[in-house]
Design a protein that fits this description.
The protein is of the alpha+beta class. The chain folds into 2 domains: 134 residues, no CATH class; 106 residues, Immunoglobulin-like (Sandwich). Helix content is 26%, strand content 32%. The strands form 4 sheets. The chain has a 5-stranded antiparallel beta sheet, with helices on one face. Strands 10, 11, 12, 14 and 15 form a 5-stranded antiparallel beta sheet that branches. Strands 8-9-13 form a 3-stranded antiparallel beta sheet, with no helix packed on it.
Length: 314
């Protein structure tokens, strides 16, 4: 496998160039995925056509198994609600920006197929406009008859290379530098705040475990991700946890919210690495997806979302 080291750029480490064939292959698989088993109503079909770009693996599986129109419409409403960066406002900024990017891709990256289906179009939809753009009309690459493009994203520490192999204005990804798949996963979970000026990347994370004996989900939030408010001698964070629980066959069994306050002393920060929260789940034996969203209205903890799979044997 050919490896090529590119020049170091401001804000970047030296990375080894990684071939983009794997990315292209995964994209092709996602777009060739079988349609849901039942015939979709027009609203659901229109939604799925584009939203599958940013569906997680679990969401795609659930949507494929929904058999009635109401269940699909509920799924669509919740799909966008989970990604809404500011639920207090009427508009969903994430949803609006997602469709704006699709329109932009169709206008600027058409290559005989709709722009949103091209490599450049999909990258634009996922990542937004690059922070820096370089085009090499002249080069010494015998494999490429047309231009070579570099799209550079500083927040991701990511460089993506597109090549026009035949000189026909048809660009494909040839390689990348940085954590491409990590950025993709954050985008799908709505942890990247979409704006017309580019991404706001949320790098926070959390863990979840399930105690089968007590039927409790335990969420562990890293203290290093908090920005506490100071109230007297106490450090305070007011959190909201939102759970969407599905059977792995697609049936939604629970949706609930719980508010929790985290109150610590300065000395606690030296002793603790995580803040642990326990949630009782009344679930029968079976296999489930726990889709968990963590919010803080006071801005003390970044919006985070993860999906976990749990198995309850008895």
């Amino acid at each position: 496998m050919r490896k090529r080291l590119i020049k170091k750029k401001k804000g970047f480490k030296d990375w080894w160039w990684k071939p983009g064939v794997i990315i292209i292959y995964l994209w092709l698989l996602s777009f060739c995925a079988p349609a849901p088993e039942v015939k979709l109503d027009p609203e659901s079909q229109s939604f799925y056509e584009y939203a599958r770009l940013i569906m997680t693996r679990e969401e795609n599986k659930i949507f494929h198994q929904l058999r009635d129109e109401k269940a699909r419409h509920d799924f669509i409403e919740e799909f966008w609600a989970k990604r809404d960066p500011d639920p207090e406002t009427e508009e969903n900024e994430f949803k609006n920006e997602f469709y704006r990017r699709i329109d932009y891709a169709n206008k600027h990256f058409n290559e005989g197929i709709p722009g949103w289906k091209t490599d450049r179009g999909r990258i634009y939809i996922y990542m937004g406009p690059p922070d820096k753009f370089e085009e090499f009309f002249s080069h010494n690459d015998p494999e490429v008859r047309g231009s070579i493009l570099w799209w550079i994203y500083y927040d991701y520490q990511l460089v993506i290379e597109f090549v026009d192999r035949r000189g026909m204005n048809h660009y494909e990804i040839r390689g990348y530098e940085g954590d491409f798949f990590g950025a993709m996963e954050k985008m799908k979970l709505g942890q990247i705040g979409l704006t017309d000026k580019g991404p706001r990347v949320n790098k926070a994370d959390f863990d979840l475990s399930f105690d089968e004996a007590s039927r409790e989900a335990i969420i562990r939030l890293p203290l290093k991700s908090f920005h506490f408010l100071t109230e007297g001698e106490e450090l305070v964070s007011r959190l909201l946890f939102e759970f969407y629980i599905y059977r792995t066959d697609g049936e939604k069994v629970q949706r609930f919210k719980e508010e929790r306050n985290l109150i610590l002393k300065e000395a606690d920060l030296e002793k603790m690495k995580t803040a642990d929260f326990h949630f009782a789940l009344k679930l029968d034996p079976g296999d489930y997806y726990l889709d968990c969203l963590v919010l803080s209205e006071d801005g003390t903890f970044p919006r985070c979302r993860k999906i976990f799979e749990i198995k309850i044997k008895s």
